[in-house]
Amino acid sequence: MTTISNETTVGDGIDNVEGHPTPELPATLSTTPAKKKKRGLSRWLPPLLVFLGIVVVWYIISLFVLDPHLRFLLPLPQDILFKGFLDPLSFNALMVALYQTVIVAMLGLAIAIVIGVIWAIAMSQAKWVERSLFPYAVILQCIPILALVPLIGFWFGYEFPSRVLVCVMIALFPMVNNTLFGLQSVDKGHRELFKLQGANRWTTLGKLSLPAALPAIFAGMRISAGLAVVGAIVGDQFFRRGTPGLGILISNYSSRLQGEQLFATIITAALFGVVVFWLFGLLGRRAVGKWYDFT
Amino acid sequence: MTVTAPAPTNTQTSTTDVLLDFSNVEMTFPDGTIALHGVDLVVKRGEFVTVVGPSGCGKSTLLRIASGLETASNGVAQVGTDRIGYVFQDATLLPWRNVTANVELLAELHGESKKDRAAKAREAIELVGLGGFEKHLPKALSGGMKMRASLARSLTLDPELFLFDEPFGALDEITRERLNDELIELFNAKQFAGLFITHSVSEAVYMSTKVVVMSGRPGTIVETFDVPFPPTRDPEVRFTPEFAALVGEVSHALRKGHGNS
């Protein structure tokens, strides 16, 4: 076997203008801590100031604008903390409800992911399948799910399965749409590369289309995850049998004018949504961040 | 695709040495565009044929027919081997695979064992001078290195017919000339049949044993030039009067063909 030439090492030096090999990494890491700290501060300071501003306005409204007997409309922050969150009774109810909502949302999301990916793969395999099935994905997206909720109750009862079903329906479309987009945006040159080797459709799917679609799939998951949280709370407020979730808790507290608990529950639901969004962003970066700028 | 018919004009070499035989090949696209018209072209083992022509003259279509990506609408296009290497205009590396995994891809698609494809990949990577970059992802490589990886990937097939579709068109001059030299060495070592598409006349004359000039709309072969320089090209050959004269002749044929279209 002949090696091309000894000059190649020189050539690589010339070639390698953009791509810096690993040896430079430790150097950049060791010089950054101070810089990083500064960047961290300038990144966190503005939103922190906005937060402080909101708290100040909150106190002003709660203390000076609202009549004491109307204070449940906007309770004092410390009351929300001590009565809404830390009071043992409220805390217990909150955790039970949160657990129930997490289960419903994540199960609904998992089912939506599986159905969505399979649906999109089916559509990517043949134009006639896409033509037959895509309109229904769009219709699913266009129907206001709230309009269907009573029907779901009729058919599937007012307990756990119906809540999950609402999550699935609300989270399904972004999965179908994103996965299909990802599968269809595979580079033409890559397709021909596989075609030239006589690769069959399943090999092409497994080794080319699906890996290429992963960034789009993870982007879809993040959108769907947020929607699944919405679905779990909406479903909860309508299907009131079985273990209460955050949705039932919210409507109970609001009908009893328990402002502190109501705010604590709303904040919990919001935090859950934020955590889910962040978690699936992290998952996406872990999965494809090495080769794709997943933001 | 795998059977070779006796080449009509061939007297000296045996028929198995004709790896590409186009006779009166026509290509008409569904929209009525005539991409190729009456193309006769033979490429034998040990020949490096370069096709030059203006953009849109059907050069790429020629390669696509040779590789089997397209079928000629008329005429006979015969290819004497199923070991065809195809280097695209872009490196077409899979961004989620590192260099080794990218180079192993073709053997993997042919169902070869892990051990075999690893051995083939190691050899090909060494051959193109990418040793030490096995674990790098494509995004960490420069344009020239990506092209080397792409070349290595095709080399794992040990191709008898090697097709190149303007592979170095997007590279800077220095990288391009270096890769030209390395490809010539590779060709001299392996003696495959090469069909190389470019729009650079000096690259064509420098690289090949034969230069084919095409004109566009419809794509036809205007003229063919044999390149008289020794197979082991000295980069200095570029500065000889003979080289300049041949480049001039090819350019002239190219302009003439272009003017007619």
Task: Outline the structure in words.
The complex is a heterodimer of chains A (295) and B (261). Chain A is mainly alpha-helical and 295 residues long. Chain A has two domains: 32 residues; 218 residues, MetI-like (MetI-like fold), CATH 1.10.3720.10. Chain A is built from twelve helices and no strands. Chain A is globular. The two termini of chain A are 45 Å apart. Chain B is α/β, with parallel strands linked by helices and 261 residues long. Helices cover 35% and strands 23% of the residues of chain B. The longest helix of chain B is centred in the C-terminal third of the chain and has 20 residues. The N terminus of chain B is likely disordered. At the A-B interface, helix 1, helix 9 and helix 10 of A face helix 2, helix 3, helix 4 and helix 5 of B.
The gyration radius over C-alpha positions of chain A equals 26 Å
The CA-CA distance between the termini of chain B, in Å, is 32 Å
- As for the CATH topology of the largest domain in chain A, it is MetI-like fold
Major β-sheet annotation of chain A:
none
From the spread of the alpha carbons, the general shape of chain B counts as globular
Which spans of chain B have pLDDT < 50 for at least 5 consecutive residues?
Answer: 1-14
Structural class of chain A: mainly alpha
Give me the CATH fold name of the largest domain in chain B. Rossmann fold
**CATH class category of the largest domain in chain B:** Alpha Beta
* Element order of chain B: H for helix, E for strand: EEEHEEHHHEHEHEEH
User: Any idea what the CATH superfamily of the largest domain in chain A is called?
Assistant: MetI-like
Number of helices of chain B: 7
As a percent range, the share of helical residues of chain A equals over 70%
Give the integer mean of the pLDDT values of chain A.
Answer: 85
CATH-level-2 architecture of the largest domain in chain A: Orthogonal Bundle
How much is the radius of gyration of chain B in Å? 18 Å
Question: Biggest sheet of chain B, in brief?
Answer: 6 strands, mixed
- How far apart, in Å, are the first and last alpha carbons of chain A? 45 Å
What percent of residues of chain A are in strands? under 5%
Characterize the overall form of chain A: globular
